[in-house]
Amino acid sequence: MEADQLISEIELAFTGVARPATSLRQFLLTDRYGMSREITNREWEQAGRERVDSSWQDIPDSEIQECDCLLAHMQAEEFQYYLPAYMRYAVKHFDKPLWQTDIIGSVVFSLSPSTKDPGGYAYMVGQLSSLNSRQRFVIVQFLNFVATEADYLQRPYAIKALEQYWSHGVGT
Fold first, then answer.
1. Residue 137 to residue 71: CA distance in whole angstroms
2. End-to-end alpha carbon distance in the chain
3. Per-domain residue ranges for the chain?
């Protein structure tokens, strides 16, 4: 599948997903400071005011670059909303080397529940729980795209995600 066609499929499958209350910049605050210090109400509100999206399609590449990949911190509904923006970004930039962007690897990782840690596995499967069958199918298409088109360093992880989780009837 060509990149433009996959982006169209992502947009169709995730159209109408409800916008969560937490912005990417608020997730970034939580990622940076959540364990080391208290985030002030002022910081939280400011990060929320900087939000530009009324739907996930409005999230610019620059915001994804600024915030990096924060999918690991999200609950199911937030994950369902932000995942397509990250997948779209990854497809648009699949030809960039790992040292320029690791968003592709981070997105693939977020779609790869590991059986090594039962708690982590349950959490990641929970993140995927809001996805409908069409969205799951598009995720499989995305992983197949990464497995065939991305940097040689990214390909094995997409293949592993497909083999260990998505090929067991989950993605259909």
1. 19
2. 17
3. 3-170
pTM of the model: 0.92
**Tokens (6 digits) for 61:** 């590449």
- Check: CB of residue 79 under 8 Å from CB of residue 130: yes
> Mean pLDDT, 10 residues at a time, over the chain (172 residues)?
96 97 91 79 89 95 90 93 97 82 91 88 93 97 95 91 84 48
